[in-house]
Structures are given as structure tokens and as C-alpha cells.
Amino acid sequence: MTGEPLLSVRGLVKDFRERGFGPGRSTVRAVDDVSFDVFPGETLGLVGESGSGKTTIGRLIVRLEEPTAGQIELRGQDLRGLSGRRLLEFRRDVQMIFQNTQNAFNPRRTVRSVLSDPYQIHRLAAGADLDERMGALLRQVGLTPAMLDRYPQQFSGGQRQRLGIARALSVQPALVVADEPVSGLDVSVQAQVLNLFAELRRELGLAMLFISHDLRAVYFLCERIAVLYLGRLVEIGPRRTLLENPVHPYTRALIGSIPVFRPGGGFTRTVIKGEISDSGPVTAGCHFAPRCPLWREMGQPARCREERPLLRPAAGGGMAACHFAESSPPLAANLAGQPSGGHA
Amino acid sequence: MTAPAAVLVTEPRAVGRRRTPLLTVVGAILGLLVLLTIVIGPWLIGKDPYAIDVGNRFAGPSAAHWLGTDELGRDVASRIAHGARATALIALGAVALATAIAIPLGVLTGFLGGWVDLVVTRVVDLFFAIPSLLVAIGVVGLFGPSLTTTILALGLSYWPFYTRLIRAAVVGIRSRPYVDAARVLGASRLRVIRTDILTGLVPLVLVQTTVLLGFAILDEAALGFLGLGVQPPQASWGSRLAESREFILAHPELALVAGVPIVLAVFAMNLLSDSLRDRLDAKRTG
Hints:
By secondary structure, chain A is an alpha/beta fold. Chain A has helices at about 55-60, 85-95, 110-120, 125-140, 155-170, 185-205, 215-220, 240-245, 250-255, 295, 305; strands spanning about 5-15, 25-40, 45, 70-75, 75-80, 95, 175-180, 205-210, 225-230, 230-240, 260, 265-270, 310-315, 320. Chain B is an all-alpha fold. Helices cover about 70% and strands about 0% of the residues of chain B. In chain B, helix 1 (about 20-40) crosses helix 10. The chains are: A alpha/beta, B mainly alpha. Chain B: One of its GO terms (biological process) is transmembrane transport.
């Protein structure tokens, strides 16, 4: 984690406006002043509930959406207003793996047809060379070249996700944004795909932004983890720190929500009260305050409702956005170290 | 990477042969019958559809005249077979015209969105306020009745709803993850339209073509019946219907013979479009 960051996100904001015309349309801020870096070869996990803006951040980075404000830089180069040849070059550097659904692949096109697209678009290969490279690509993700002439719906969920990985790797990117790549798969298949990610990362030196709501998958794969809540980054830090000593009340609640097996028998888990939608639009202060257990414990200090907490260094090398992060007692749980061994 | 795991290799499932539904068979047979009438009917009957024989008016079916003769003593079978050609030409022309307008416009509006979409959609809405037969009558009134005008009239009355249909389908396809994936890979808009949008439209267009062919045959008959279609003495199914109308009380069999082919052809098209719709379900491709 030294040297220049590969990807640098600064003050990213994305507003979605209601459909329609004229004034009076309400605006939803999906991503609210988010900043982080991804270093070469590093995997950063982006976790959060649904609606936290993690998918939007992924789509902004691969330029499927335009940011409302803020900067996204790749190797120090600003991506705003990139077009034509420069945009095409950027496409080779940054790729995306989509959530496995029926519609991740066009059901009317063979694997050969879909996989040959990137080689044609970027003029990377043609003819016999193309066949060879597509075959090698399939082998790389654990499939066989004979599968080139099949249709996507002739594959199982896990195989189709491998195809999705192959599609993203075809242009040999430096950074891959993986949006919920293992949700929607059987648990046993999830493990296989996660192992594939780990292998590819090691072999190719890929940097990855791994977007997931599955904390166990994130722990298995990521060096650093960023936690999002309602479009804002609440905590970011090395995997171990975040897992063993989370400082933000939301992160603590999130980690507390993982069911832990107790040797004495049974499971324990702490459940956060309320829904993400309960908070309503937060105009000032900390957007987690309405659901924050720490805020209630401390007698609902006014500062949380008035002043927006900024990310600041916390113990253990991470950063957290909480006015009272220091006041929280250490997490007295036995889950520290437990998931870091990996589940796959 | 280790050697590919054998577990991951599965053979494609053998697709069991499904029995062709009865209605598909009926539709195919009727469709074939109509096609044969168009292609070899006139040659098979071998009679001049325009030869007037006033001494032999309203003759019943005989060896010489399979379906009898009409009010001018012309061979009815021959007029229907020749008329089938004119009607088929009109139907195909009208559908081709509507498709040629609807696909580019629907893809443009559905894919690009923005103000182009807004303007075209409003214009389409405007057309929706006018009954389509009225549009057709308007066009005929403007250019005078003829075969070409009928094609123009029907084609122009079909494009608005067809455009809306295509646009809706394009909007649906555009939001699929595989289109996002193509964009991330650097595919241009044109490439996405070619590889993902147009291929996705194929089933819809095939089904709509058969549905519209049925409509066009019916509407040609309606225009013909109103005397706004193909003009006498040229034969078409619509004009045949118009000619027989005058004698419907004295000789109802003429109207019946004129109407049956229309009913059968439209029925065939509807059956075929239904079975096409079932067959082209994307989930079963491959």
C-alpha cells in the first residue's frame, strides 16, 4: 500500500433526480462526498446495506454514470470529460464484473460472439489468434474452449459468473470493479468463485474494488474495507483493524450482525434497530444518528444532529467518521480473527 | 491456475422434441394454402380474370368455372387467385413500410432518450388520437385510390403503435446488464444497437410482422369495401368484396366466396403469430 494510488476518488457526489420536468422534482443523493484510493494490486472491499450507494460508486468509476461532483483519477489522470480514443484506452484499464443474473449475458449470442467483442473493439486479435486467446481466457477462469459455441443459458450460475470474469479480463485491465459478484450463487459455488478471484489477483496483480454486502466474502478477499452508509463513507481501514477493532458505531453494528457460533451452543448476533429508510432525509449532522446506539447511550448529544462528522484517523490505522468514536468501549466479542482465516 | 476442474464441465441438456401444437399445424396448413393460391393459383386456374362474358352472369360452380362467375360473367376463382396477389402485395408493402419507419424510430427514441424521444413520442401520441382507418382514408383522399396508395395508407396508419412497441422493447433491452457490460468494454452505440438491441428485437418483429399481415389483409378488405382500395377492374380481395356487395341479396354466395379467403388468411396469420410468440421465447433459445 505504498506509492502512487492506481485509482483515486475525491469528493465523489452523485444525485439522481426524479423523472419528469421542471422544478419541484426531488433529488436523491446516492453518493455523498466519498473519497478513497485503490493501490496497484490491492483489493478494496466496499460494503454497505442495499441503498448505501455502493453499486452507484462502482458504476461511476467505470463511467456508466457521470458524477454530479468530485473527481475520479486513474494513475493521476482525471476521468471527467474523457472521450473518443482516450475513453477507449480507459476502457482497457478498468473493467467491471456484474452480479450474476439471467441478463448478465445476451441470451441470443454465443460465448464466442460475446467474448470476441472486446478483441474487435480494441483491435487486439483476429482470426486464429482470436480463437486461441479466447480459449486461453476460458481456461484461465476454469472453463474449456469447447464451451465457446454455447449459449449463456446453457451454463450454470457459477459457470456464467466465470464467463463474466473472462469477459472483464479479456482486455487485461489493471482495475476490476466487481459488483456483488458472488451474491445470487450457491454458497459452495460462491467459495469456488472467491477462490478464483484470489488466484487471478495473485497471478495477474489485479487491483480490485470488491462491492458486496457479504462481509465474509469481503474479509476473505480484501486487504482494506470501506463501509458505506446512506451514500457516505463511515469507516475505512485495513481488514484486520476494521474487523477486530471497528470504531464507528455502524461498522460495529454491521460486524455484530454476523451470526457467530458459540462453542456453548447456539448462535449470537446483535441486530441494529430500525431500517435504513427510517432515518428519512438527513439534512445536517450525522446521518446515522437516528439509528445510532452510541448516540442514545450518550444521551443524544446535539453535536451529532448539527455537525457532519468527517473522516479522521482512528486507532489501528483506519479512518472513521464519528464525533465520539473514541468514547466507544472496545468491541468485546470473540469474533476477532475468526473470519479472517477465510471461509472458502 | 490449476487444470480445469472436471466438475465444471457439463454437457448441454438434450432438448426433448416437443409435439407441435394442433393450432400451429392448422395455421401452417392454412398459411400454405394462401401461399399456394398466391404463387400458383392463377396458373392452376388458367382463366383470364378480366374476360367479361355477359351471357354467362351469376353462373354456379362448374367444370369451366370452379367457383362460378360474377355479375359480369368473369371467373370468380381466377379473380380471387389474382386478387390474392394484389392483396398480398399490399399487405407485405404496408407491413414493410410500417417496419421501415418503426424500427429506426423506435430504436432511436428508445436507445437515445432525451428530447428526440420526447418529441417523437408526442407525435406518436398525436397519431393515436386519430383512428387508424381514418388516417388511411385521409391518405387515399389525398392521393386518390390505387394499389400504391393503399400500401401507403395502411403503412402510415400502422407505424405509430409499432414504433411505440419497438421503443418499449428497446428501453427494456437497454437497461439489461449485458448492455452495460458492452459499454464498459468500449462498444460504441452503433455496435450495441447492432449486437444487442437489434438481435433482441428479432422475435418481436417476427411476431408483429405476422400479426400486422393479418391486420393489413383485413384493412385492405375494409378499404376495398368502401371503394377506397384497389379500383375496378383490377382484382383484389377487398375490391372483390365491394363488387359482390351490390348483389348481396340476390346472390349472397358471391359475398361468401369473397369473404372466406380473407377470414382464412387472417386466421392463419393469427395462429402463426401465436405459435411464433411461444417459440421465440428467449429462455428456450439454443
